[in-house]
Amino acid sequence: MENRSIYDQRLTEMLDKVADEIKNYSIGFISHIKKLAEIGISLTSEKNVNKILEMIVEEAKNFTNADAGTLYSVEGDILIFEILYNDTLGVKQGGTTGTPIKLPPVPIHKQNVSGYVAKTGEIINIPDVYEDNTFDFTGPKKYDAQTGYRSQSFLVVPLRDHENTIIGVLQLLNAKNKDTGEVIPFAPEYEDIIYSLASQAAVAITNARLIKDIETMLNSFVKVMATAIDERTPYNKEHTARVACYTVALASQINEIAEGPYKDIYFTEEKLAELNMAAWLHDVGKVTTPEIVMDKSTKLECKMDRLELILQRIELIRKESKIMELSGSSDKKANSAFEKKLSQYENFIKKANNPGESLNERDLQLLEELRAFRFKGHEGEKLCIITEEEYENLSIARGTLNPRERTIMENHVMVTEKLLSNMPFIKKYKNVPEIAAAHHEKINGKGYPHKLKNEEIPVGGKIMAIADLFDALTASDRPYKKAMTDEEAFVILDKAAENNEIDKDLLTIFRDSKIYATDTHKKGVFET
Q: Which helix (H) or strand (E) element contains residue 332?
């Protein structure tokens, strides 16, 4: 009876132990499943490929308690080192670490274990590489000799994407006993877990690369389109590229500000990308602007040279006056005085036609004389020097555009907003239409197209306004003026800031940073 009691006790203890082991295994298994699900969520939300690669290695090491991990990407017939971690040696290379991996690529052939896995897609689990004759472990052994490390257990799994294509190889090294720290073989049950993790990661990598490829294509298309618009006129070449450079550079400088109204503004990498795209697209509406308006280099320029027409009229009036003198209809003295007046008109018109010429009170009086001038020819016809439309153009106070032409030119911003608002931008670029359409708004509310005031204008629009104006002032390819020096441009910009047309604080950052002075920005090229 006593023996029976002892037997029952031992059986109970054994059953309890088995139950505990089953329970612990179940808890561990459920924990693994839960962890895999969490990792899967993290992988799908991450868009940075390097961070995904690092996540794979870190999580695989954590699952298996491995001392080291290496991740390769497949490039043709070789494996490229992407991530190299070794806890014992304190090595963290590749990915976002900033430390490059200097090891040479690994050929994909069946002699080395990683190449074999890349070629066949099999999972390889080796307890001790020094006791294995299946593969050539010359590389790991050489690494051991150089570093004093001891490579032992290996678990190597393929990374398969959604099309079952092997895009990489994950290699884990030296599993450790969690209690003793002793290097042990990788448990077989980890093979499926790590393979599942690697498969999730492969899909995430493929998706991230696809998104990046789509963004690259979109950016390329945007730049091609912007360049094509700039190429419509020889007077606007590379303007968009320069504005984009100035804009992004100024936004980056704001990130460094520790005081002032912009100290709490920070442009993340995504926000800089959004701003860059808005800058490249800020003049896309000019696709509908007539070239004759964009290229107008003098006040009288149109499809034909109106200055030449006016000079021909003056010459005709001269001849008519001479005919009348010869016929006795007018005397020589009066005709001489009239000739001087015609020469005065001629010189004035040539001068007033210059876009850089501002008219004083005497000039305006002379222009009114020209407007009213009529000469009766020898056959009784009345001849004028300028038409009403030519009078309007010669009266232009600044630049070369009359009010109708200026309305046409300013309409490019409305077209920009309309075109971009119809584009299905991804979330990252959702504010591009608003930013691009705001580069002609003014702090005082007198800009266009919506007459927005200070707080209503997006910061990106304020930044771009300065970049656009600075380039307009300093560009050497504008038809209506000669290029200003940087110093001359800042005189104009300071005045604009005083008049609350542009943001004074942003202008200070722009000037103090001297980003405008670098050759790369002048040429419309980003610094790397």
A: helix 332-352
